[in-house]
UniProtKB/TrEMBL annotation:
Domain of life: Bacteria
Cited InterPro entries: WH-like_DNA-bd_sf
Taxonomic lineage: Bacteria, Pseudomonadati, Pseudomonadota, Gammaproteobacteria, Enterobacterales
Full protein name: HTH domain-containing protein
Listed Gene3D superfamilies: Winged helix-like DNA-binding domain superfamily/Winged helix DNA-binding domain (1.10.10.10)
Amino acid sequence: MQGNEARHDRLAVRLSLIISRLLAGETLSLKALSDEFGVSERTLQRDFNQRLSHLDLISDKEGYRLSGRLTAWRPPDIFTFLQKVGLSRYFPGLTRKAVNHLLNSDIHYPCLAWHTSIETHPTSAECFYRIITAITSIVDVRIQQTDSEWLQLTPYRLVLQGAHWYLIAAFALRLVVIPLDKIQSVHITEIPSYRRQDICQLSQEDNFIQGLPYFESFQRTMTDRDY
């Protein structure tokens, strides 16, 4: 009897966590859930197809998610944030349970990430969040660099490399990289952005990111030699 109750308790906890993440707008992978909950993928398929059949779910190669017809409410989620900005790689085997332990440690923090201070311009904060707004809204921006004219760009990503943030963007379909501390002003336009998939992919590759500090010099050299 106690074994059945414990099994039912685990099932209830698993289903409640799955539902809360679906409502937060996440796409849930069977493999990731199997590793987290210690159950088979077949059991999880039964959860989605039978026990959660009342939900309007979509299933594809990425996993299960709520239909777009339902409005997802996303509470503050540090685990998702760490994944989306590329910081989860710094925490070996990071899970939601580990994040909860870190957040619940009020007296003695078990982890400390030491890093160098980033170099910023007095207007960096405002420019930073305007660029983020433009990227998520999929619209172009007009930026003014220090001692430079206004330039209309399609923004792709802001990437932190070393002590600097870099804007990866396109100008007339040409790839450009601009240090954030050289951007003086940003204006968000209403012009829809057209993003090239190859630049999207390139902007998250390790080798490209490592070369960001040298991109401007390399580009200037190529231009001077008229390649």
